[in-house]
Amino acid sequence: MENIREEVKEFQIGMKIRNLRQERRMTLQDLANLTTLSKPLLSQIENNQVIPPLATLLRIAKSFQVPLNCFFEDERNDTKCLLIRAGDQHARQLRSAHGHGSQSYTYNSRAFGKTHHHMEPFDVEFFADTWSEELMVRHDGEEFLYLLEGQLEFRHGDQVIYLEPGDSVYYDSTEPHGYIARGTIRPRAIAVLYQNPNRI
Questions:
Q1: 2-72, superfamily in CATH?
Q2: d(C-alpha 123, C-alpha 108), whole Å
Q3: Deepest in the core among 60, 65, 163, 166, taking most CB within 10 A?
């Protein structure tokens, strides 16, 4: 876990959030009011004490009116073509299921360093195998997921869909949605998030 925290610090998401907030002359309470996230949680995120899930980052990005990818960019690198080799680990992060104390998934950015992009690709591993209210999220945009291995139970609104390797789903992420692992093999998938820049 400590290695993961060090990678998150290197990625500087907390610093980027603090800089965006201070540039707008916002207090932590102002940001809490906009995002409906608690002030202590936002403070922990800014200080790299909590690893934020993607849905939380999307809420913060929307409150600043910036795209999600601003947290995964390296302004020093404006390459037109980004190559990430097998085994490269960029910004590997854990999400904890609130109130359960166990991780529900890890995500690894596949666009780390690419500036000015609209899609956000990740490889994802799923750990949660029991439904809880905290696993259902909703946010602006669209998502695509392609299951590489294992089995997943996917919920989208009132739909329940069981995914096998090779299956994919493309969905409106403004509807409540979530995943849990099924079977004995830990599920791995490629996921792509898209935010319409005109709706940020």
A1: lambda repressor-like DNA-binding domains (1.10.260.40)
A2: 5
A3: 60
